[in-house]
Amino acid sequence: MSGSAVRMQKNAAMLTPVQLEDLQRRFGERLSLSAAAREAHGRDESFYPPAPPDAVLMAESEADVCAAVAWCHEARVPLIPFGAGTSLEGHVLAVQGGLCLDLTRMNSILRIDAGDLTATVQPGVTREQLNTALRDQGLFFPIDPGANATLGGMAATRASGTNAVRYGTLRENVLMLRAVLPPGRVIQGGSRAKKSSAGYDLARLLVGSEGTLGVITELTLKLHPLPEQVAAASVQFASIDAAVNCCIAIIQSGVPIARCELLDAHTVRAVNAADGLGLVEAPLLLLEFHGSPGSLREQVDTVQLLAAEQGGHRFDWAESPESRSRLWRARHRAYWSAKQMKPGCRALTTDVCVPISRLAECVGESLAEAEAAGIDHFLVGHVGDGNFHLGYLVGSDAELATAERLSAQLVQRALRLEGTCTGEHGIGLHKQAYLLQEAGEDSVAAMRAIKAALDPRGVMNPGKVFSAPSLRPFGPSPPPEGARPPWGGPAAGPTP
Amino acid sequence: MSGSAVRMQKNAAMLTPVQLEDLQRRFGERLSLSAAAREAHGRDESFYPPAPPDAVLMAESEADVCAAVAWCHEARVPLIPFGAGTSLEGHVLAVQGGLCLDLTRMNSILRIDAGDLTATVQPGVTREQLNTALRDQGLFFPIDPGANATLGGMAATRASGTNAVRYGTLRENVLMLRAVLPPGRVIQGGSRAKKSSAGYDLARLLVGSEGTLGVITELTLKLHPLPEQVAAASVQFASIDAAVNCCIAIIQSGVPIARCELLDAHTVRAVNAADGLGLVEAPLLLLEFHGSPGSLREQVDTVQLLAAEQGGHRFDWAESPESRSRLWRARHRAYWSAKQMKPGCRALTTDVCVPISRLAECVGESLAEAEAAGIDHFLVGHVGDGNFHLGYLVGSDAELATAERLSAQLVQRALRLEGTCTGEHGIGLHKQAYLLQEAGEDSVAAMRAIKAALDPRGVMNPGKVFSAPSLRPFGPSPPPEGARPPWGGPAAGPTP
Known about the structure:
Two copies of one chain form a homodimer. By secondary structure, chain A is of the alpha+beta class. Chain A has helices spanning 4-10, 17-27, 35-40, 62-75, 127-134, 151-156, 164-167, 170-173, 202-206, 240-253, 265-275, 293-309, 321-332, 334-340, 359-373, 397-416, 432-439, 441-454, and strands spanning 31-32, 55-58, 79-82, 99-102, 109-113, 118-121, 139-140, 174-181, 185-190, 215-222, 224-225, 229-236, 259-263, 284-291, 315-318, 346-349, 377-382, 387-394. In chain A, a hairpin with a 4-residue loop joins strand 17 (377-382) and strand 18.
């Protein structure tokens, strides 16, 4: 699949000089056509070759976003929202050309309501920026995918990460959002109330839509009180199986663990080399506990018992905040550290998530397969959620072919075990066929019907989630010339 | 608004004798035309006069549901899904006539995965039925709206209730669902994996759609381990303000309280009379704590401190499971107990939810208004979520006019305080204008565009959530004769 981005790029419809002049008249210095800007906005952290947009607009307000969406709808030009560019699935590649809408200048924290445990932010605010602002409030925003992504981008991909096992994903932590949909209208999903049964859940529809429905312009997020106490430890096991079985036991015991991360021996070697951690080079669980002194003690006691049952005896405690952040920084950099183990290689990373009871089977078979294929690989995982990333290190076309075969087999295994092809990275360019297989033709057809209803000209981040042509042999005729989105709709009820 | 159901009923398009014969040929004894069956399926627990359907189909399988949806789509006849009939917003009233689809025979618990903390059920399973089946597994399903509703109905209205403050609503506790959409296709939302970023969140779109998009035929729900210890207590306060401020302090302290319910003095009098509880007739908080012995002690200590600061000294502990269930049964029957205080009255109940920091203001002003108007009323609330139900007891047209005025003012207040017009009951028939005001015209237009895309003939529970005619002065022309739903959709990307 890695070639598909290139192929799609060939189909790109370039913006005409007249269109570019028009955009410059409208947006002035906020629009850039420089090769450097286009190149910088044509790449992310995915496996794909760059696909630069024709122009880059640095949005500074929701009005800019409305104007850009309206212009692209009118001109039938692709619009690609862009945040920190940390996607692993090619979400921001301009595979059909068009206008890149960079939201990083919309980075104001609009409001922090400590009394309601909420923060309202613009989409370009990063999670680290938000947590820095929250520090003296005794609150934090837990979702932590590793990269210092923008919160808008995290919402668009339904991101999660190391803390999701306790605090949930972006899906559970977005209270309210604003978004601009074609032809430039602002919608609101949810409210500041903690719960609501008022109409369709537009907030949850936009979360995870990967920029294919609209552009998120404001997010109201749930905050959490900083835990009274935090304790982190690494514990080693003789085998991956033992480590995974320990994790399964922890989750099934109901211990509210805050982080439960798996590293295989290859990854431990890599982070040792990169960050000088001096961890024992064996399968490891990295654990973090949050709570009051009393509940923390209970959690640790239970987990130490469960670990011992799997032969995981030695708990290596990261006592100080500094040692904790060193540990997690190393974990977050594991992907890059692992790549450094094979100079010049690229990493093809997977993202399956399975029910916790099937995790040992999924991890075990997949690692055995990689060993048998003799390809360099590494494994890290948010195993408390049943989510893990097996990365294949690719230095040749032969290795690429092997990696893609193994990746495909891994997804088939996850689906057979009633899991998903993507726990947190999204569909993007690579997993569209897997989505079809996972959700089924009729489910994807329903998603495409929603896409067609809200973005009838298909200008919002085209080529992502669904690829043209239509997945079904039948469907509606394309919208007529000058069609407007079907705002409103037929009167409910049968025709008299 | 209470007359609107009647008015809409007058517009009902009756099924023709030929259509009824056709249905009987297809479904045999599962179809009933009896006045008794129609009458029983034309009412719920809302304020509205009955609106019976033309026929009632007792669905026994997903195949029955597919056939019914296909038939209604083809014949352009309204289809109204029906569960326990406990809606408070008229969701099941056949205000435009049509076919009622009773799902209570689809009441099998298909699967319990203790290892994954999930259960898969048919839509007609009730929450009590599920919890009975779970008892010997050490697990439970926490969402508890009071009524023994079907889980399908609870999902369709995004129900919550007393435990939501700790365990979330149906929205957070549905892992996966199957649903039948026009013209009779089965979609799947989510997977058994704990999290997923695979495509649009169809599960969350169906949850809360009130039967206007499709019929839910299967739910995979999150389960929770039975708490090691449970403690419940009632604590009285000198004023509603003190009780509400205590609740606010509890939530802001981050104590993971399992239930935090408010009863005003009127309600306490009512439940005393109905259930002989002998509670002190003052504003009360009913509290429940779940956890290990250690964490429970910490929670109780903190809450007793916070209550004392508001003058709430005496904690009346319900020690035994029996006394606890008596307490909660009384709480759940408060609505009916309150009605008994005024023989022959009807209760117009409200359902606003506001950010916790604005709760005291919203409750205080609303009660003062009711007192000033001199109308009998009662207040119960899931105040830990900022959600409360102020009920007005109506015995005359004059009182009805007063109640409707106060209800409208209460919603305006909640919206001004950045809350929602419905925390858990849904929009149904009554709150459509409030939805428009709360979400905005463009947001509701987007919802209607989704409705039109997935149910182009408007046969799914018409007249609920959105009322005809179109809310906008413009919109697409109604679907042409013989139109099919736009499964598939235009190719993404601009037209070359």
